[in-house]
Amino acid sequence: MEEYQEQEYEFLRRLEEEKVGRKTLLKRGLVAGAGLTVMSLSPAALASRKKALADPPTIGRLAKLSDIVAAAKKEGKLNTIALPPDWANYGEIMSTFQAKYGIKITNDNPNGSSSEENAAIVALKGDPRAPDVVDVNPTFAVDGATKSLYAKYYTTNFRKVPRAMKDGRGFWVGDYWGAVSIGVSKSTVSNVPKTFADLLKPEYKGKVALNGSPLTSGSGRAGVVAAAIANGGSLGNTAPGIDWFAKLKAAGNWVPVPATPQTVASGQTPIVIDWDYLNLAYTKEFPSVKWVTNIPVDGVYGAHYAQAVNADAPHPWAARLWQEFLYSDQGQLLFLKGFSHPALFTDMVARKVVPNALIKALPDASLYAKVRFQSVKQGNDTKTVIKEQWPAKMGS
Amino acid sequence: MPGRRRRRSLAWLGVLPFFAYTTLFLILPSAQVMIGAFKGEAGGYTFGNIVDIVQTPNIRHAYRQSIEISLVTALAGGLLGLLIAYAAIREGTPRWIRSAFTTFSGVAANFGGIPLAFAFIATLGTVGIVTQFLTNVFGIDIYANGFSLFTKTGVELAYLYFQIPLMFLVIAPAVDGLRTEWREASANLGSSSFQYWWHIGLPVLFPSLLGAVILLFGNAFAAYATAYGLTASGLNLVPILIGADLRGNVYANPHEGQALAFGMFAVLAGMMLLYVPLQRRASRWAR
Amino acid sequence: MRRPRISLSAVVWLLVGAAYFMIPLLATFLFSVRDAQTGKCCSLGAYGVILHDPEFWTTIRLSFRLALETIVISLLLFVPTIYWVHLRLPRLRPVIGFMALIPFVVPPIILVVGLLGFFKDTLHAPFWYLGNPNYFLVTAYVILAFPYVFFSLDAGFRAIDVHTLTEASQSLGASWRTTLLRVILPNIKVAALSGAFLTLAIVMGEFTIATLSAFHTFPTYIQYINETQAYPAAAVSLMSFGITWAAMLSLLLIGRRRRVGAAVTIAEVGH
Fold this sequence. Notes:
The complex is a heterotrimer of chains A (396), B (287) and C (271).
Chain A: H1 2-33, H2 37-54, H3 65-75, E1 77-81, H4 90-101, E2 104-108, H5 114-123, E3 133-136, H6 138-146, E4 150-151, E5 173-185, H7 196-199, E6 208-210, H8 218-230, H9 239-250, H10 261-266, E7 271-275, H11 276-285, E8 291-294, E9 302-310, H12 316-326, H13 329-337, E10 341-342, H14 345-350, H15 356-361, H16 365-368, H17 376-394
Parallel strand pairs in A: 1-2, 6-7
Antiparallel strand pairs in A: 3-9, 4-9, 5-7, 5-8, 5-9, 5-10
Helix pairs in contact in A: 1-2, 3-12, 8-9, 9-17
Chain B: H1 2-14, H2 16-36, H3 48-55, H4 57-89, H5 95-108, H6 113-124, H7 129-138, H8 152-176, H9 180-188, H10 193-221, H11 225-231, H12 238-248, H13 254-282
Chain C: H1 8-32, H2 45-51, H3 54-87, H4 93-99, H5 102-105, H6 108-122, H7 127-130, H8 133-159, H9 162-171, H10 176-187, H11 189-205, H12 208-212, H13 218-228, H14 231-254, H15 261-264
């Protein structure tokens, strides 16, 4: 499967190269034939370049970054959706992008879900307010590609992204990943729970929450899968996770409040099962609750999110510039600063471009080494099982 | 008489803008929903969408919960609103109290939606002021005893905040109509307070009371913002389901969402059919 | 004769009512002055966070502007209509009165489904209409305000003698325009202002239609803060309450003579 993807990418790349070569040759030949050899190069080159700029590129590596920047600046705007500023440091990413290129970002529905992102692409088709780029969880990325919502775009660093985190056809690319963690407020909870087994203890009555209902929220679903792994299940067997939550509810420890930064800050959800990058960010954001984060050793589960460009993007060049920025070292390090593992993490570590302080800020690497992503089928199975069993066992 | 007919037809022109506007922005969009609910995915008309939503347990549960919450807050709000209105308006209470309560009811009835949801979180949330007060001063931890703001009960408590004032404002004119002479006469004839209410007060107020309760029911049933602010799609209510469908295309078939909306409309229209004749009867007493 | 004294049961219920109204407001206030660092009293930092947020100013300005536009269009549409109905087509009054009850069976949550479906899917309306809150939202808000503006204006027109005023004005040679502007309007000023303030309160608090058609107004901003910040959420909720209160107070002051029965009806909207 991976071989085929590799080959396809190489084939497309060479095709692009050949095309350009042929066109230029043809033009030069014609112009030379018309006897305008000396003056041929500049206007012809300009004309051919202008034509190339009219259609946004599919392969980032073959376009000049300065061309993309220029065209994007001409568009002047970028529409993003569902990017909370404190999610994997998107706040700083967006402000850095805006300052660097002078392109204004309009971020719609910051607390929206992945399904809302895809729905917005459909609902706002043709509308200048439509999102240019989306950041969705893998099942929705595959879904969006199937429904032809996305444009093909291979970022310059596409080859360096791990195979498990990208779509060979170029419709989406994983941008960062994280693991399920347990965040705890030390100002409310004196004895910090570190594993799923711990959370069932009676001292945590009415304190444990998820980041949203697993029926609709990707991180909620991840919490269930992690619980499944901790209780005899696996990536392909989610039911034990639902049973564990039912046990949590029966013990009286479960709080049906979706955890948000607000509920963390106000102390409403003193224990939150959520992505590590979210929990780790709360420590600095809300000092009054003394937030600490641990990856549960009994249930290690991680997943990535995926970038995609809207096939009908109102600002296609700005969208591609955004992708280039995110996958540049600068962009990836900003993701790391937000406590997530950027897609190019291994590559950057090998090239020694990662500041030590950032690595130290993350939990122990040995735990992360255990992380395996779900396959598409496993992801869809999880969704089905949760849809069937969660309302019945957990009530609504 | 041709002259009169011409004048009459010209007169209709004067209201044309109004009817054009309401047709375009109210009637036709409403029709879109009502008719769309019966459209099949492949075209043509069908009852299939309605059948689908009736057969889905989750949706049935949402209707049940919505109706239950609306009923509870309408009756509780109705009773409390009546008691407070009577207390404020009756003989013996200084006039300024009635003015104050009327003003405040006007504001509180309008303080709904998102800000109200947060006000209740600040009051009765897990770290709310009242929650902590009860724990620190009386040693009662309501959350340990099973209470939670983010359930049906919490939503009902929050709804009461605008239901009671609404009841106050709606029932005040009717309570006004209860002549003090009747109360005095009944006392003179030796009847107790209870007998007064049972034989005179409630029968006179009945049409207004029922109308007001129906109004409150419709008000709670259609509420979206307050429920969303408290539970953010966590609680299974019909407006929340409709909202979720609009945001995330939860149902593959767009007509299912319209069918949900049609179901709501049917409930509200049923209420309306009861309300209008009651209002007419109630106006008999208001003088 | 001695004035009758307030009864004990009345005192009890009034205190219960007062407590139920006041406590959440007090709690919100206490919550809003908690310090972000320590989680305890007292600091105005939460208010500072809101007031320094540019998004706060953008959205509150937008909501205010939408309210003004809604008021203008509503009055432009309904004042002449109701005047005309009172003057020439009295049999239409119950018809319009009935139409004013339609928003009760088509509340905002249903109306937004209909508006989006009708204008986007059926009419394929252009994006300068669908994407601009000054067009899409305002046209919807005029419908939301319609029952309340109608009841206010209707009461106002009933209180004056439309026929006499009109005939007198016209017999003195005034045109329709002059009659409407300089004779009728001053007489229904109170009713019109009542309707205007009710509309202001409605639009400043409307969440459902705004959020489901993807616009950024003040109520959607409050919800965003509700989800992301703790103490500033209490601060902005209180500010929103303050705005409603100011609108209603203005209503009361200008409507001194008339019963605040019209205030009743706004309750439904915004929930």
